[in-house]
Automatic annotation (TrEMBL):
Family matches, as InterPro entries: GPCR-Ligand_Int, GPCR_Rhodpsn, GPCR_Rhodpsn_7TM
Transmembrane helix listed as a keyword: yes
One of the record's GO cellular component terms: membrane
Gene Ontology molecular function: G protein-coupled receptor activity
Bilayer-spanning residue ranges: 27-48, 60-81, 101-124, 145-166, 186-207, 243-263
Protein origin, superkingdom: Eukaryota
Full protein name: G-protein coupled receptors family 1 profile domain-containing protein
Keywords for this protein: Membrane, Transmembrane, Transmembrane helix
Pfam family, any one: 7tm_1
Amino acid sequence: MSSTTTTTSDTELIVSWHEMSLQINCYFSIFLFVFGIIGNILNIFVLLQKSLRLNPCAWLFLISSFANIIVILSGLSTRIISNWTIDLTDTIGWLCRFRVFILYTSRTIATWLILLASIDRWLLSSLNAHYRKFSTLKEVQRGTILIMIFSIITYLPIFYCYEANLINTPLKCYSKTILCRIFIDQSYICVTILFPLILMFLFGFMTMSNVRKSKYRVQSPLLSRINCHDHRQRHFKLIDRHLLIMLLVQISFLALLTLPQAIQQIYSTITRNQIKTSLQI
């Protein structure tokens, strides 16, 4: 009797959780889609201003905004559509592989561009004039090309590993073998989330350290008088300061939103061979 009661209770809990997850996926996905697209489009309009076009950090934010729009379109659009009709990426193999490849590649590009922006801020804030010379639009454009090539090469195995119409997997469009799942998941955890985040925080702290040192360095009366008369220089310093604040906020939100996903994927990989109940992930 007690066993029957427990089973019934578990079934009801599973059903309620399933219904709740469907509602969250439906409405929260729409919320993220709308505000994500609008936010990134506004970013693009702001960053296309004449005063920001030659700023290396602003250029990286601009390309990152384009990449984020691709992430939202490839990641959330199919999830929203699946609430009302059949998701073709679940049933057509090439469409499944192409969508996942675009999603993972664009997300990696967006993340690494923010990392490159962190490095650029560190170079610009350095007291060493030789380092500051590397903070140029030409250098970040080269870095962007390398990031794109690196991201594409990293996730090329998706075209072999992913298949549609799979059963006994978390999603119908998923890795078809255990080895593929481990490789893709670990690549995503390390390359797209953990490694760039660690470097972002590292260069962020180094940048803040450089900013503090530079404040002490410019306290001489001569430099103060020069800076007071140089309105153009102060204007560009103000832009750089705002871009630094924007960068730190973006890094914080990126860590907040991606670390839980990395933890979940690590847990799934570690427990992949364990027999789980219906209430376990």
